[in-house]
TrEMBL record:
This is D-aspartate oxidase. FAD binds at residues 24-25, 147. Its EC number is 1.4.3.1. GO terms for molecular function: D-aspartate oxidase activity; FAD binding. D-dopa binds at residues 204, 259. Selectively catalyzes the oxidative deamination of acidic amino acids. Suppresses the level of D-aspartate in the brain, an amino acid that can act as an agonist for glutamate receptors. Protects the organism from the toxicity of D-amino acids. May also function in the intestine. The keyword Cytoplasm applies. It is found in: Cytoplasm, Cytosol; Peroxisome matrix. One of its GO terms (cellular component) is peroxisomal matrix. InterPro entries: D-amino_acid_oxidase_CS, DAO, FAD-dep_OxRdtase. It comes from Charadrius vociferus (Killdeer). SUPFAM superfamilies: FAD-linked reductases, C-terminal domain, Nucleotide-binding domain. Its cofactor is FAD.
Amino acid sequence: LCIAETCPSCSVTVLSDQFSPNTTSDVAAGMLIPHTYPGTPIHTQKQWFKETFTYLFAINNSAEASEAGISLISGWQVFKNTPKEELPFWSDVVLGFRPMSEAELQKFPQHQFGQAFTTLKCDCPPYLLWLEKRLKATGVQMRTRKVANLWELHSEYNIVVNCAGIGAHQLVGDEKLFPVRGQVLKVHAPWVKNFIRDGDGLTYIYPGIHRVTLGGTRERDSWSLSPDPGTTKDILDRCCSLEPSLRGAEDIKVKVGLRPSRQCVRLQKEVLSQGGVKLPVVHNYGHGAGGFSVHRGTAKEAARLVGECIAALQGSSSRAKL
Ligand SMILES: Cc1cc2nc3c(=O)[nH]c(=O)nc-3n(C[C@H](O)[C@H](O)[C@H](O)COP(=O)(O)OP(=O)(O)OC[C@H]3O[C@@H](n4cnc5c(N)ncnc54)[C@H](O)[C@@H]3O)c2cc1C
Ligand SMILES: O=C([O-])CC(=O)C(=O)O
């Protein structure tokens, strides 16, 4: 969508073997709370988060908000031990960030420190459908196709953008990319209005517009997409210890996704070449546990790189004509 918006002269086709609701992005809780990428400078991560927050905040403040599945949500991140970093890098991007008061902490007798703030949440399947609708409105083609390797696209397209998520492990043989399996529950509990996240990152309760996401797990190098019933019970128990009213949650649906994890998002150009023929590629994958939090910022950078590829192609074709 960013490419179609910033380079209106190019014709864009989305190729994917699966579309919503069958992607990792459909499983995500969609909360805007960044995860740190150890291999990326903090100022860059902050910029990506800020651009994403600003983009979604504008949607939240528009008549599109409920169709796009975007809502503002207030709540608490609680810690059993006070973290080294009391002020995370994103504290001045979310709204109203402050330490929790003693009165608020009374709700969490096992925790001794907490942060209260307001952030945004995407209800992922509606948001993805809303993005698809906007893509189609700008004339973008959507085709179901599994790509075995990027070079197979060279005769049909001038530039390829690789947003394959965990699929990039096989597609481009990236050994630095690994799955972190996550199981979550999507439940009906409309009385839960605030988010609660344990600062250890394992247990969270995220109310969306229609359903509450309860998490979670982080299992490195597990490729299994099958829900585990023992884990479902464990997630429910952990969430109920933070919010006991969840014992009354109904219509529990279990989802599993593989976070496309890496030291840093791979956001760079590469030129593939065979027998003197060149194919410029822009990679944009490896968003791990924080893809929603930075999606618009990384997409803007990918679109800028596509712009550079277009300029290089135009330069080389005018040189060829000379
Ligand atoms: C349980 C869980 C909870 C999460 N919660 C949050 C959260 O609260 N906040 C947050 O910011 N992030 C969260 N995330 C992380 C987020 O889901 C990911 O970072 C994000 O979804 C990655 O998006 P993506 O578009 O790169 O990958 P995907 O959504 O997997 O999309 C990749 C697409 O590429 C296609 N594809 C792959 N290989 C090929 C191929 N060879 N040929 C054709 N098509 C191909 C796939 O079919 C798919 O459509 C969570 C993740 C999980 C698992
Ligand atoms: O950690 C969170 O708050 C939610 C999330 O991003 C994940 O489970 O990957």
